[in-house]
Design a protein that fits this description.
two-stranded antiparallel sheet, globular, single chain, 3-stranded antiparallel β-sheet, 7 helices
Length: about 290
């Protein structure tokens, strides 16, 4: 019996695992149950997905060792030792839910797609390509839910269109509270104009799901307010400039600006994207 403590910026979990003597390989589309993720689903997503900025993992991550079963180091299909990330299930489907991949990736910045694919039972040639996994995360999770991307490595001088699309969907209060969850409000006090943030509401990949609620301070790391990153401030500034220019030209949205009004290397599009979640004050009150 092995016992581990998994610390994330949101939760601390005690995990007890038993290395099985049975080495029978499961179906290629099987992902083993695991206490770190089994309570979550498309209708009840892990709160860690909705943290805006990547946290500091300093002092939180255990030393990495090799996965050992029956006294032997376990190796992948290429003969390489499998690293023992204790929050990963022993076997992973060749097509796990994209939200689950996103959850694993956000749990430990050392985790790579190779670590995930090492636990798939198919030959390496049949495993998904890294780019395909990236596209699924954006198309199936980050895009629909309006999540931030922790792993962007673009230079500060070149903001991508998708970054502006993301920030268009975030309210100032979401940025202040370091979250892409929906901020819910109490009605304004008499003689004031501003509603009062009072809690966070989760999002779901299934319409009509029962939401989960969290304290406003869930993602603040004991600070009163989140200080936005330089990149977010730059993206905000670009979004406001594009939005104002679109209004001057009588366009419905900045997405329809002609190419000569867009940043270098951006292309004009014919139809704007439709977003599922846009955090406005009206939606924040659940109306």
């Amino acid at each position: 019996m092995q016992s581990y403590k998994i610390n994330t910026p949101i939760q601390k979990i005690d995990v007890k695992l038993t290395s099985p003597a049975d080495t029978t390989l499961p179906d290629p589309y099987h992902t083993c149950p695991h206490p770190y993720h089994s309570e979550f689903s498309e209708t009840n997503l892990p709160p860690l997905l909705f943290r805006l900025h990547m946290p500091s993992f300093r002092g939180m991550l255990p030393a990495l060792e090799h996965l050992v079963e029956n006294g032997q180091v376990v190796r992948d299909g290429k003969g390489e030792p499998i690293r023992n990330f204790v929050f990963l299930p022993r076997y992973i489907s060749v097509r796990p839910p994209a939200w689950l991949i996103e959850y694993w990736i956000r749990t430990d910045p050392r985790l790579t797609y190779r670590d995930i694919k090492a636990r798939m039972v198919v030959e390496p040639s049949l495993q998904p390509k890294d780019n395909a996994i990236n596209m699924r995360r954006e198309r199936e999770v980050r895009g629909p839910l309006g999540l931030s991307c922790w792993t962007a490595r673009l230079s500060d001088e070149h903001l991508a269109r998708v970054e502006v699309e993301r920030i268009e969907r975030w309210s100032l209060d979401q940025i202040r509270y370091n979250t892409t969850m929906i901020v819910e409000y109490l009605p304004a006090f008499p003689k004031t104009n501003d509603d009062i943030p009072f809690r966070l509401r989760s999002k779901s990949l299934v319409p009509g799901s029962q939401p989960q609620y969290y304290p406003l301070t869930t993602f603040l790391d004991q600070r009163h307010m989140c200080v936005p990153s330089r990149r977010i401030l730059m993206t905000q500034s670009l979004f406001w400039r594009l939005r104002d220019r679109a209004k001057e030209l009588g366009l419905q949205t900045w997405q329809l600006l002609p190419e000569d009004e867009l940043p270098e290397n951006w292309k004009a599009i014919q139809a704007p994207k439709k977003f599922t979640y846009i955090n406005t004050k009206r939606l924040d009150r659940g109306e």
